[in-house]
């Protein structure tokens, strides 16, 4: 596995190709591949300039990208562009400040079809979050495999304090968020 900072831009086109392969396949088949490529490539250029940006790339024996993860430490104030506004609405400012600000934000995690079932997604997550007390990520509620995977790994969902959205928030390293069940 290779770690990148801003030098990720040297392989941006190759990474964009891998991103499109992951994020236009089911359950994302409704996405246009060229629009997805352009949007990711533009976002990557901006994201690579963020303080603390890191990317991890693992390659297959044939040299192709098998999986990738990008992220950074979430700064204050919390942004409201992209999906951030939905996150703020969903879990509320108090939980955002307690759980997300200063935590490692996993922005993109993808494993290509030829590398699925190898434990690569778990290794990427563990590698990226190893030196962070807390981490968080978003998942689309229709990406059932990813949602089940994060739950299986013990990532937790903060209490929903606002409107339900199609974006789920998962955190790791936070205090236990499960409500204690009361029996009578």
TrEMBL record:
<feature type="domain" description="N-acetyltransferase">
    <location>
        <begin position="40"/>
        <end position="178"/>
    </location>
</feature>
<dbReference type="InterPro" id="IPR000182">
    <property type="entry name" value="GNAT_dom"/>
</dbReference>
<dbReference type="InterPro" id="IPR016181">
    <property type="entry name" value="Acyl_CoA_acyltransferase"/>
</dbReference>
<dbReference type="Pfam" id="PF00583">
    <property type="entry name" value="Acetyltransf_1"/>
</dbReference>
<protein>
    <submittedName>
        <fullName>Ribosomal protein S18 acetylase RimI-like enzyme</fullName>
    </submittedName>
</protein>
């Amino acid at each position: 596995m290779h770690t990148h900072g801003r030098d990720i831009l040297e392989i941006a086109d190759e990474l964009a190709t891998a991103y499109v392969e992951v994020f236009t396949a089911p359950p994302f088949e409704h996405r246009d591949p060229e629009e997805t490529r352009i949007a990711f490539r533009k976002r990557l250029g901006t994201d690579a300039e963020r303080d603390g940006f890191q990317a991890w790339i693992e390659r297959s024996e044939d040299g192709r990208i098998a999986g990738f993860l990008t992220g950074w430490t979430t700064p204050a104030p919390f942004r409201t562009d992209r999906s951030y506004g939905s996150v703020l609405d969903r879990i509320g400012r108090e939980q955002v400040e307690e759980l997300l600000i200063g935590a490692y934000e996993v922005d993109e995690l993808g494993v290509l079809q030829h590398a699925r079932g190898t434990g690569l997604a778990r290794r990427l997550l563990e590698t990226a979050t190893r030196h962070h007390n807390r981490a968080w990520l978003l998942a689309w509620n229709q990406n059932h495999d990813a949602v089940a995977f994060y739950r299986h790994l013990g990532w937790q969902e903060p209490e929903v304090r606002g409107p339900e959205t199609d974006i789920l928030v998962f955190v790791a390293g936070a205090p236990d968020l499960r409500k204690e069940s009361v029996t009578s």
